[in-house]
């Protein structure tokens, strides 16, 4: 028998796995045996060919040994973090469906078949919604307020249908994991999964479930973990983070500079050079933030594979040369204006010359032109990988 034939025979002898129950674990000796037993019992009672994977996150209380003795496949992940544990568990999972559930007994393992039925019905990602089923003592007052706020902010930015974006019980098709390209290592992993699924236009569904008081000591840090979720949402939405404030600042700066040059008097005051300096600063900062927003979207589209119809249409219409020409035009206008100022200064014998307004305008045009010129190059560099892939 050839090696290839033997390998195929061995592969055929391995039973197919329908469901992989993945449980992240960090010092859960008090609960892990019960969790593994409950997961195995659910699989057995429902006739599901499955496996239980415990992703141990460098526990120091013997959790890994207890999980293995209870019948789980233990995957060691020395790098601490909720996301790190799940990524290791996903890499080891063999089931067509993956069920995610915490090791603190806050979720009822008997709910697993409900999640699987939604996947059988065509869903790609099924989320639990705890908010109407929180048992007494199961969630702190801070989390009761903070979770809806963070979930609402996520829905506002990414237009997802999920009301409880941070629920620890969920299920998904294993074949969608390459499309999600999950990278977060901490608790923000829960938000990243929802964001990536929404951007991939996956079928996301939500099921109401109960949340029970946890067994053992909580590992959550509400303020730290809340900030990590918020930070990830902002990083995944450069339009909100950069473009909106950048456009507002630039528009306000142009308005202030226009008031000075138009000699407009508002509220009994005429705006002079100090207002012009403020306006120039706002325009420069606003232009920089808009550049950051474009680079952020370019990275998401070209490097992470996000879909952004507006950006893709704009990218097809505007090329590197357009940005370079715009930047050169602004720089040329600034240099020309500076030349006029120097000419006037020389015409006055090199003495004192009151040209503060034109000098600030020239400097603003030159700085913004430089920003546009080099931002165009940076956008083109970010897009190199996508163009290479298209050529291949």
Structural summary, described in words:
Helix content is 58%, strand content 10%. The protein is α/β, with parallel strands linked by helices and 392 residues long. It has a seven-stranded mixed sheet, with helices on both faces. A two-stranded antiparallel sheet has the order 8-9. A hairpin with a 2-residue loop joins strand 8 and strand 9. The C terminus is likely disordered.
- Report the count of strand segments: 9
Helix tally equals 15
Proportion in β-strands: 5-15%
- State the oligomer: single chain
CATH architecture of the largest domain: Alpha-Beta Complex
Order of helices and strands: HEHEHEHEHEHEHHEHHEEHHHHH
The order of strands across the largest sheet is: 3-2-1-4-6-5-7
Number of domains: 2
Rounded Rg: 29 Å
User: Could you give the distance between the termini?
Assistant: 39 Å
CATH class group of the largest domain: Alpha Beta
Structural class: alpha/beta
Question: What's the average pLDDT?
Answer: 86
Q: Could you name the CATH homologous superfamily of the largest domain? A: Spore Coat Polysaccharide Biosynthesis Protein SpsA, Chain A
CATH topology call of the largest domain: Spore Coat Polysaccharide Biosynthesis Protein SpsA, Chain A
Low-confidence stretches: 7-13, 387-392
Helix content class? 55-70%
Overall, the morphology is elongated
């Amino acid at each position: 028998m050839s090696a290839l034939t033997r390998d195929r025979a061995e592969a055929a002898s391995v039973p197919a796995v329908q469901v992989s129950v993945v449980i992240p674990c960090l010092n859960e000796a008090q609960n892990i045996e019960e969790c593994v037993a409950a997961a195995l019992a659910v699989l057995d009672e429902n006739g599901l060919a499955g496996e239980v994977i415990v992703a141990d996150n460098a526990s120091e209380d013997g959790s890994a040994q207890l999980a293995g003795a209870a019948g789980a496949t233990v995957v060691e992940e020395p790098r601490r973090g909720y996301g790190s544990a799940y990524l290791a568990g996903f890499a080891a999972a063999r089931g067509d469906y993956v069920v995610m559930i915490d090791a603190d007994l806050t979720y009822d393992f008997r709910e697993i078949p409900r999640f699987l039925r939604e996947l059988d019905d065509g869903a790609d990602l099924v989320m639990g919604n705890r908010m109407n089923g929180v048992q007494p003592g199961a969630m702190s007052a801070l989390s009761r307020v903070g979770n809806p706020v963070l979930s609402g902010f996520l829905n506002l930015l990414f237009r997802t249908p999920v009301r409880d974006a941070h629920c620890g019980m969920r299920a998904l098709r294993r074949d969608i994991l390459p499309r999600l390209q999950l990278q977060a290592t901490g608790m923000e992993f829960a938000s990243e999964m929802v964001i990536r699924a929404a951007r991939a236009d996956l079928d996301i569904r939500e099921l109401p479930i109960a949340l029970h008081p946890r067994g053992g000591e909580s590992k959550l840090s509400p303020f730290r973990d809340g900030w990590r979720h918020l930070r990830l949402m902002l990083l995944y939405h450069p339009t909100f983070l950069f473009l909106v404030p950048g456009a507002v600042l630039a528009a306000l700066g142009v308005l202030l500079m226009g008031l000075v040059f138009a000699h407009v008097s508002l509220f009994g005051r005429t705006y002079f050079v100090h207002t012009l300096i403020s306006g120039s600063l706002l325009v420069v900062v606003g232009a920089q933030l808009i550049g950051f927003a474009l680079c952020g979207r370019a990275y998401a589209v070209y490097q992470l594979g996000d879909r952004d119809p507006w950006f893709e249409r704009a990218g097809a219409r505007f090329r590197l040369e357009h940005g370079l020409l715009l930047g050169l035009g602004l720089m040329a206008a600034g240099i020309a204006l500076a030349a006029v100022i120097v000419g006037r200064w020389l015409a006055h014998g090199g003495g004192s010359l009151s040209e503060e307004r034109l000098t600030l305008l020239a400097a603003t045009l030159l700085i913004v032109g430089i920003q546009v010129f080099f931002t165009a190059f940076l956008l083109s560099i970010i897009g190199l990988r996508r163009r290479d892939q298209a050529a291949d």
